[in-house]
Amino acid sequence: MSEALDDPRLTVAGLLAETWSGFAARITTQLGQHGFDGAEFEVLLRLARSECGSLRMSDLAAQTSLTSSGITRLVDRLVAADSVRREACTTDRRTTYAVITEQGHARLAAALPGHLELIERWLVGPISCDELASFEATLRTLRDGLRPDAEAGAKPRGESAPSVPEVPAPLAATAPA
Predict the structure, then answer these.
(1) Could you report the per-residue pLDDT of 57-74, keeping only the tens digit for each?
(2) What share of the chain is helix, strand, coil (3-state, %, to 5)?
(3) Looking at the domain assignment, is residue 159 inside a domain?
(4) Closest Cα to residue 124, out of 79, 166, 159, 170?
């Protein structure tokens, strides 16, 4: 049993959990200052980064950790806050799109600078550019294995992403290497 407890895989999993919980606590506080919970922010960010600012509700559920009914309830709240609207698909009556509104873009733009500062300070700033590229590739590999549907409805990589509310450039881009 002692050998199993010393397994470095347990250390890696524990470090990941500790890192994420510390980072998530900071995000929760920062987003709360802008009237968001994490799921609302994630949905608005995904919509803003998607083609035409919209995603099918089913794709939005696949990209988040929410069930179909959970995403419906969350989008209901965002519709009530005038941050999202629903649009019916013109070619398939069964399909509904969630579309970010100008109010949603404005809310996102207000929260993004502080959010990016947190990402810079606690997640990407402490590691080098080379480590960051490797870290991103590793995260994509892990995510693709665990959540193969996470990019459902997203534009293929390499295509230009739609514009997102303007925010300052990440600090790492201007910091000396």
Answers:
(1) 999 998 988 899 999 999
(2) 60, 5, 30
(3) no
(4) 170
Q: Smallest Cα–Cα separation from 167: which of 106, 126, 122?
A: 106
Q: What is the CATH number of the domain that holds 127?
A: 1.10.10.10
Residue 67 forms part of a structural domain: yes
Domain, as residue range, for 59: 9-151+164-172
Hunting for tokens 């069930």 — which residue is that?
A: 67
Cβ atoms of residues 92 and 58 within 8 Å: no
Beta carbons of 62 and 153 less than 8 angstroms apart: yes
In a domain, 177, yes or no: no
Q: What's the predicted TM-score (pTM) here?
A: 0.79
Stretches where the chain sits below pLDDT 70 are 1, 154-177
State the total domains in the chain. Answer: 1
